[in-house]
Amino acid sequence: MRVIHVWDAYAPSLFDQVHPYLLNRPKHASLLLAAHLIENQSTVLPHTHYLDSRPVNEDILPPLWVRARRRLRREFAELVRRVARSSAATSIWSTAPLTLSLFNRFCLAHAREFHGDVVHAHFGTTGVMALPFIRATGLPAVVTFYGVDGSASLRIQRWRENFGEMFARMSRVIVLCDAVRDRLLAIGCPHDKLVVWNLPAGIEHYPYQPRSTAGGPVRFLVAARFVEKKGHKYLVDALDRVVRAGIDARLTMIGYGPFRPAIEADVQRRGLAARVTVIDTELASSFSDTYREALASHDLFVLPSTTGVNGDDEGGPALTMVCAQAAGLPAISTPFAGAERSMVDGVTGWLCRQDDAASLADRMQWAATHREVWNTVGKAGSDHVRAHFSLDGQMAKLLGIYRAVIDEAHG
User: Fold this and answer.
1) Which positions ≥6 away from 386 have C-beta within 8 Å?
2) Lowest mean per-residue pLDDT among 16-20, 119-123, 196-200
């Protein structure tokens, strides 16, 4: 089986385990095509091609270039619906924005040499961008929705229209939780094309380890981007409440993103600086090593995810929480879209109310004062995610999806 993966922005080793998995299987071949490669010091694997590369932090680019890139992306959103409606490749490319045209030509040139069997577009927005290429190949295609494309993008009329036209061309639409499946059904995605699938979380890199229930500070951990939907502000508030209740608690926050300065300022304002450690990973290729070390030295994982003002939410299970559960940390989280894939309240962790620091503090305080349940809950969580998020298990399901759409195309 020969699979062509298409991405808009691709960060090696972080966002896609499918390509390297297939490269290591002699019966399969994999080609990855990206408009932009995000430079994060990771090794770029063979058969990975991209139009351009850019640093992890766009802020270091000249402001004019940043504005130009953002303007081009707005053009994509505005014009791609008209582009996608055409079935003739020449007319598509003559009317598309320059970068979109180059991207589709670039993909088609590599695809002709590769002779693929199926195209897999990663993110619904990428699937729309790549429609001219997919139509030109005539190959069966699947698309995976990951997060913002299955939440915030659905609030924008033009994207709902774009997705509707994309659904007609795709053989399967893969989502990561029931909530996104229902959202796509509501905008017209055919029920028989939708598949709920668990993205492999890399749990094989995080061995189970019983937690020490001896005395000492209770060590909470969160690993999440510093963006609105991760709910850091509620976590800092909740930690403050837990400490004021007399519990000796510590918090480590691992991640990167624009909200970091505001969160650190809030930590300082509350007098919590001695209790809070921030580790900025900035999409580092060494994240798994950093995270594995942190998991080994902490007791409880916390993730108070919410919905951003623009509608952005998790749109699927939080993979850092899945990996923490694999390592044996009991988890505390909100019931975000996708949490149910790894969180069974009272069994693999505990749920708190969304956007409610008091509710989160109650769960943190209860867990902190009931050390005797840590290993029971931690082991249950580890067993659960190992049964549902293993690389081999989930790749077998994905390969089954590929085979089904290939067989249908040839049927």
Assistant:
1) 203, 326
2) 16-20
157 and 249 housed in the same domain: no
Q: Please say if the pLDDT value at position 404 is more than 90.
A: yes
Three-state DSSP at 344 gives coil
Task: Kindly state whether residues 180 and 212 are assigned to the same domain.
Answer: no
Can you say whether the dihedral through the CA atoms of 349, 354, 355, 359 is positive or negative? negative
Structure tokens at 12: 């090696």
Least confident residue range of 46-50, 80-84, 339-343: 80-84
**According to DSSP H, which parts of 124-156 are helical?**
124-129, 131-137
Statement: the pTM of the whole predicted model exceeds 0.70: yes
How many whole angstroms separate alpha carbon 298 and alpha carbon 321? 13
* Nearest C-alpha neighbor of 250 from the set 263, 265, 235: 235
276 contact partners, CB below 8 Å, separation of at least 6: 236, 239, 250, 251, 252, 253, 267
* The one-letter amino acid at 339: A
Q: Which two tokens stand for residue 289?
A: 């090593």
HSE (side-chain half, CA atoms, 13 Å) at 294: 27
Give the C-alpha separation, 391 to 395, whole Å.
6
Domain that residue 374 falls in: 203-388
| Long-range contacts formed by 370-378: CB under 8 A, 24+ apart | 371/213, 372/213, 373/330, 374/211, 374/213, 374/299, 374/300, 374/330, 375/210, 375/211, 375/213, 375/328, 377/330, 377/347, 377/348, 377/349, 378/208, 378/210, 378/211, 378/325, 378/328, 378/329, 378/330
Whether 102 and 248 share a structural domain:
no
- Domain CATH number, residue 125: 3.40.50.2000
Number of domains in the chain: 2
State the distance between the two ends of the chain, measured CA to CA, in whole angstroms: 16
